[in-house]
DNA sequence: GGTTTCACATACCGTTGGTATGTCAAGTAA
DNA sequence: TTACTTGACATACCAACGGTATGTGAAACC
């Protein structure tokens, strides 16, 4: 049974968590290519044998880390959306939460920069789809069905918005310009408004 | 004088061009990380010594390739824009040309996927700025000054649009959906329209 | 309580990016 | 022409990397 909890299973789970936590810190700080497995296992206090007992490859480890980060972002976006009553406000709040999530370095480097390059764009896209991007598609679909959004294919629109927010999040993280977040949000909000049904 | 053209300089230039051409093909087809220097020099018919005589590192070679690709895209975008008389049409034509440039695999993989990961987002951004992104900022600035675009900070807007188009270009390249380009363009055009001064 | 399983540790390997050095023709000055 | 220098590579080599094959000892099972 998977419900069993012996000391063995606990140890295993903890080792795995440690590996994920330490590699995530290193990947976020230095980038996937710049951090070696030796550095990861040293930080985690285990050996390469342990790492390869839990993960198939360095790429597989990165995939697990990325999924973790993405899940966190998705939760934040969904929470911000659910806090609003009106569908339109839900979309706006989710988008804004996504932009603000860009302040997290893990989010930028792991998810946006290294993700597509390490996993390939196709796989990255698939993971993105079942992460935060799914909420975006859901929200847009709801709006179209409710007649609040001009009828149109949702997929291209979601891609445009997703890309816009990804890039904006990266830009916001590196720019020192004060009010950049508000300016960006204003421009994005205007774009969203333009999609409203008439 | 740099204008001198002996057999030496010619040979040097040709070797460099061959290196750039072959590595570009390989980088585009397999991605930066998956292609080794051995494969590159074999394709180019030279040795690693020649490569390191022309470039400081594998990263430096990639940087040169990326700059070349980016220049080509910038030329295409600028040409499409210049073909239009009205400032607003120039922006629209440039954006559309950019989207269509996404059909080129070199463009996708080298410029959009591997670029930020290999060079780091900051350097990639700087290169992007002096490439096609510059034309976008120029066009937007012109429109604002001409009173055709609602007065607003141009930088955030340019980032949003640039990101939207980058992502859309990648999506268009992988989707089999017919009419995807037109749907995407329609959504993008609508966004652009929303920015018009009233 | 003997056996099996499992979660690692140890030892090792092929390949990779990078470097140090060698080589020989093209350029230069007498 | 000749002696010398420069430059465009080729050759040989290295440390580090991701990955694998094998060893080990405690926990789980019968």
TrEMBL record, chains A, B:
Tell me what this protein is called. Answer: TetR/AcrR family transcriptional regulator
Sequence ranges assigned to domain HTH tetR-type in this UniProt record: 13-73
Q: Which residues bind DNA?
A: 36-55
Q: PROSITE patterns, per this entry?
A: HTH_TETR_2 (PS50977)
* Source species taxonomy: Bacteria, Bacillati, Actinomycetota, Actinomycetes, Kitasatosporales
Which Pfam families does the record match to this protein? Answer: TetR_C_41, TetR_N
**What Gene3D superfamilies does the record tag this protein with?**
Tetracycline Repressor, domain 2
Q: Which UniProt keywords apply?
A: DNA-binding, Transcription, Transcription regulation
Is-annotated flag, keyword RNA-binding? no
Tell me yes or no: is DNA-binding among this UniProt entry's keywords.
yes
Give the matching SUPFAM superfamilies: Homeodomain-like
Q: Which GO terms describe its molecular function?
A: DNA-binding transcription factor activity; transcription cis-regulatory region binding
């Amino acid at each position: 049974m998977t419900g069993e909890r012996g000391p063995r299973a606990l140890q295993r789970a903890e080792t795995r968590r440690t590996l994920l936590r330490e590699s995530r810190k290193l990947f976020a700080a230095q980038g996937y290519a710049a951090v070696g497995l030796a550095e990861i296992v040293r930080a985690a206090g285990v050996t390469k044998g342990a790492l390869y007992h839990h993960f198939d490859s360095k790429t597989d480890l990165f995939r697990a880390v990325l999924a973790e980060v993405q899940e966190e972002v998705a939760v934040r976006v969904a929470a911000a959306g659910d806090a609003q009553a009106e569908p339109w406000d839900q979309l706006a709040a989710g988008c804004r939460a996504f932009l603000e999530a860009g302040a997290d370095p893990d989010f930028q480097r792991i998810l946006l920069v290294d993700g597509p390059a390490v996993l390939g764009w196709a796989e990255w896209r698939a993971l993105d789809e079942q992460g935060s991007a799914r909420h975006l598609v859901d929200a847009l679909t709801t709006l179209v069905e409710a007649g609040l959004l001009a009828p149109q294919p949702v997929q291209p629109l979601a891609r445009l918005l997703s890309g816009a927010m990804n890039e904006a999040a990266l830009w916001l993280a590196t720019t020192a310009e004060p009010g950049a977040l508000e300016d960006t949000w204003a421009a994005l909000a205007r774009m969203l408004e333009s999609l409203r049904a008439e």
